[in-house]
Amino acid sequence: MTGMVREQVRRVIRTYGLIEAGDQVLLGFSGGPDSLCLFDVLCDLREELGFTLACIHVNHGLRPGEAEEDQRFVETVCKERGVDLSVCAADCAAAARSLGLTEEEAGRRLRYGAFDRRAAALAVQGAAPRRVRIAVAQNRNDQAETVLQRLLRGTGTDGLAGMDYVRTGEEGFAVIRPLLDTDRADIEAYLSARGLAPRRDRTNEENTYVRNRIRNELLPYLADAFNPNITEALTRAAANAREDSAYLKTLAEERFFDAQTAAGEIPLPPAGTPESKTAGAPFDRVNMDLNTVLAAPLPIRHRVLRLAFERIGLTQDIAAVHIAAMDRLIEEGRTSSETSLPGGYVMRIGYGVIECLTPAGQPAAEEAGEGTAPGGSGRDAAAMCRADVYTREELLTLIGAKSRAADGVPAEEPAAKALSEEEMILSYIYSKNFSGINEAACVLDADKTAALLAVPWEELRERIEFRPRRPGDRLPLKEGSKSIQDLMVDEKIPKDRRNHILLAAAGSVILCVPGGKPRPRCAAGCTAGRRTQRFLVLEMDGYVW
Fold first, then answer.
1. Which pLDDT tens digit goes with each residue over 2-49?
2. Are 488 and 498 in contact (CB under 8 A)?
3. What is d(CA 110, CA 131) in angstroms, rounded to the nearest whole number?
4. Closest Cα partner for 395 from 344, 449, 347, 431?
5. Are residues 513 and 389 in contact, defined by beta-carbon separation less than 8 angstroms?
6. Reported confidence tier of residue 324, pLDDT bands at 50, 70, 90
7. Residue range 92-119: mean pLDDT, rounded
8. Fewer beta carbons within 10 angstroms: which end of the chain, N or C?
9. How confident is the model at residue 434, as a pLDDT?
10. Segment 320-348 mean pLDDT
11. Quick one: pLDDT at residue 375?
12. Contact (CB, 8 A) for 389 and 534
């Protein structure tokens, strides 16, 4: 029996790529039968597979006396096998009261939170985050219980898929389940054959929790009255659903990517991945093209909506009632309509876009109009903007140096392909006039801009500031001018963003408005051209669109 269980675990590890040579495996070790079995098997496999094993034990404080005995047992076993152990104490009952959860759910959150913190500490100590694996000891019977419990709640295909062999946790660490194909009875036989006496949690025999009633009452009844192989049937159904779910998720990811790019967004990386950790500040919104999402078949659309909120932190508690409310708004397409989701998240319909917002991503108050005080993001981003004036000769020198650097040509050597001065300048202007996701730039004629403002061109840099809109701001047009308020309405810029867009201004004269178009809107009559002698280059980094 010991060889069979060990071989099952080895096969699962290899089939699903759970552990590779050089990995750091952190095992959640309660001391119960499942975790003791997995601990013993991993200890035997660590040299063969080339990984390092460490353990973490969480004392939930729910069984005074017994919980301390559990901890001492785990400490003794780890010491005997030479395995590093970290112990964490938690007040599960207090957490349950504070969060409004059952003690079972609160315990799970505390447990995985402790696992993530310890995994992060191992990463800091030198293990690459991608190589840290959190191992948990759910078995085949746990899978059957999970599927049946979700079925009783009316779950869909994703829920019927049950637990996967590997998933990415909230902090980006892989959570692996090497025992997922192993029966509880085989685990008990393994422990007996190995002479291992696990700790027993007496609360598992109490039918206080729904999970315990499913394990102790419902599954035995179904086995006796309907199908003696009920555990096998449920896990087989989960495997079938997992295949369908994986395919649908792939389609949803593709549609989600398309919906973001169609809305002019840079697609967000999956939550918890290393890419999301290095992408800057936490994301507070996702924008998707309304028509792209609307055209998706309902199973894909619903997964796209869940993916969008998952990317910004809402990973659970989205129920069928929330999906139905979002469906209704998408199909109606009424601008400014919105619906609330758990945790203060909101889905809102904008101008041809679906906006998924965190509480932080929502405006503090409804916009009052043009005189509303600007948001902090605009002030912070202004420090990353600049205005520079170049003579024709200076600009040509700058362009030539950049061109040689891009081509890998030493600065003292000429570029391989010679362009005329006018071609170089026009190419620079075309490439520089753009609006991106978080940056924008434009090139103006410094002499024409100075004439518009009635100042010497030498004073332009000192006169120009980058700031959010103010009352009275106007953009010069070919005939007359237009208020920035009217311009933003015409460009269909969402109300909650208008006060965060940085403008290049000289007093109340607006020289450049980034965002809304592939190229920024600039003051008429001031744009640079092939015959321009002095160039005003405006570069804006920060929150633009």
1. 789 999 999 999 999 999 999 999 999 999 999 999 999 999 999 999
2. yes
3. 23
4. 431
5. no
6. very high
7. 86
8. N
9. 62
10. 93
11. 40
12. yes
CA distance 499 to 514: 13
CA-based nearest residue to 230, from 253, 214, 242, 247 = 214
Residue 29: what pLDDT? Answer: 96
Q: Do residues 450 and 457 make contact, with C-beta atoms less than 8 angstroms apart?
A: yes
What's the Rg (C-alpha) of the chain? Answer: 30
Q: Please give the DSSP secondary-structure letter assigned to residue 126.
A: T
313 in the Ramachandran plot: left (φ > 0), alpha (ψ -120 to 50) or beta? left
Mean pLDDT (the chain) is 85
What is the C-alpha to C-alpha distance for residues 502 and 540, in angstroms, rounded to an integer?
A: 8
Yes or no: say if 103 and 62 are a contact pair by the CB < 8 Å rule. Answer: yes
Neighbour count for residue 228 (Cβ, 10 Å)? 11
Write down how long the chain is: 545
pTM score:
0.68
Query: Tokens for 437?
Result: 């996701």
3-state secondary structure of 53: strand
- DSSP notation for 365-434: S----TTPPPPHHHHHHHTT-EEEEEEHHHHHHHHHHHHHHHHT--TTSPPSS---HHHHHHHHHHHH-E
- Per-residue confidence (pLDDT) for residue 1, from 0 to 100: 64
Least confident of 85-99, 133-147, 425-439, 512-526: 425-439
Q: Residue 94: is it exposed, middle or buried by C-beta count within 10 angstroms (0-12/13-18/19+)?
A: exposed
> What ranges in 125-229 are assigned the alpha helix state H?
140-152, 157-160, 184-194, 210-213, 219-225
Are 210 and 80 in contact by the 8 Å Cβ rule? The answer is no
- What angle, 0 to 180 degrees and rounded to 10, lies between the N-to-C axes of helices 320-332 and 298-311? 110
What contacts 24, CB < 8 A, 6 or more positions away? Answer: 51, 52, 54, 122, 127, 131, 132, 133
Alpha helices, DSSP H only, in 126-199? 140-152, 157-160, 184-194
Q: Which residues have CB under 8 Å from 434's CB, separation 6+?
A: 440, 441, 518, 519, 520
Which pLDDT score, from 0 to 100, does residue 537 have?
92
pLDDT at 378: 46
DSSP state of 341: -
